[in-house]
């Protein structure tokens, strides 16, 4: 064997010895690698589950037919259940309101205005805080008065919470939505009548609430307990009568303002609900 062959043989033995000396991957290292893979998988799964909950929803609630939100963009958190909601307290002389209606009666046809045209009516509204009496002017607002009379006869507002009170800029108590949410209507709508061109609504005025659509009058109405100036854009708000008794009840409720972060506009601190409405024609 030549010296060159001996050197080559020695080199091969040396290389084989080095391979044997290199330690294989340890169990601890292998465990770390496996744990890393599992952790990565878990993070990916968690991202798939969590991200949809963090992203905001694009869903929006559609208002009910005849929803009234203009003179009243109502605060969330009315009192649809019996008893007092959080932050509410009974005013002196008031009783605990009943639960609001979950499925109020709905009507497809606007009442005939001829039934009220040229006539005057007295409406007695029994509430959990006492009687409030209206004089309804069928001469100036025949369609509105005809609708009010029809809904009263149908028992539409029995019961019905007054869901909104305002005490800054405008001074109103808004009622007439049996659901107490500010979004309910009787199923039909009609246009504006007898709206003051200057936007002046004296204390004791009885007028219709509506959306920005001038043809969205329905079942919701409001009472001004102080002189108020309301927007005239869109045609204003239909005055169809006045309070002849019980304005002090409205003033008492308004004095306690609204619950929540905006006490000048929202659900009354002191709840008041309509229990029944009866209407009779005033004879000359």
TrEMBL record:
Residues 67-81 have a biased composition (Polar residues). Its EC number is 5.2.1.8. It catalyses: [protein]-peptidylproline (omega=180) = [protein]-peptidylproline (omega=0). Coiled coil: none annotated. Residues 1-28, 60-111 are annotated as: Disordered. The keyword Membrane applies. It is an enzyme of class 5 (isomerase). It comes from the Bacteria. The chain crosses the membrane at residues 34-55. Residues 130-279 form the PPIase cyclophilin-type domain. One of its GO terms (molecular function) is peptidyl-prolyl cis-trans isomerase activity. Pfam families: Pro_isomerase. PPIases accelerate the folding of proteins. It catalyzes the cis-trans isomerization of proline imidic peptide bonds in oligopeptides. PANTHER family: PEPTIDYL-PROLYL CIS-TRANS ISOMERASE B-RELATED, PEPTIDYL-PROLYL CIS-TRANS ISOMERASE-RELATED. This is Peptidyl-prolyl cis-trans isomerase.
């Amino acid at each position: 064997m030549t010296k060159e062959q001996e050197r080559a043989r020695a080199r091969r033995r040396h290389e084989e010895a080095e391979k044997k000396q290199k330690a294989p991957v340890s169990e601890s290292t292998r465990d770390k690698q496996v744990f890393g893979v599992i952790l990565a998988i878990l993070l990916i799964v968690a991202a798939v589950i969590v991200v949809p909950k963090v992203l905001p929803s694009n869903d929006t609630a559609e208002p009910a037919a005849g929803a009234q939100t203009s003179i009243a963009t109502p605060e969330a958190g009315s009192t649809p259940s019996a008893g007092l909601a959080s932050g509410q307290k009974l005013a002196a002389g008031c009783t605990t309101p009943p639960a609001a209606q979950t499925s109020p009666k709905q009507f497809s046809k606007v009442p005939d205005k001829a039934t009220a045209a040229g006539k005057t009516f007295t409406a007695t509204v029994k509430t959990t805080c006492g009687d409030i009496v209206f004089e309804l002017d069928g001469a100036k607002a025949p369609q509105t008065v005809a609708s009010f009379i029809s809904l009263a006869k149908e028992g539409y507002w029995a019961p019905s919470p007054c869901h909104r009170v305002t005490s800054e800029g405008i001074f109103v108590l808004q009622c007439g939505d049996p659901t107490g949410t500010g979004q309910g209507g009787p199923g039909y709508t009609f246009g504006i009548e007898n709206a003051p061109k200057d936007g002046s609504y004296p204390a004791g005025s009885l007028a219709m609430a509506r959306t920005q659509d001038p043809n969205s009058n329905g079942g919701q109405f409001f009472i001004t307990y102080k002189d108020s100036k309301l927007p005239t854009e869109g045609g204003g708000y239909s005055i169809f009568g006045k309070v002849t008794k019980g304005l002090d009840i409205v003033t008492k409720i308004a004095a306690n303002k609204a619950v929540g972060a905006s006490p000048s506009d929202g659900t009354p601190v002191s709840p008041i609900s309509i229990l029944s409405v009866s209407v009779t024609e005033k004879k000359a």
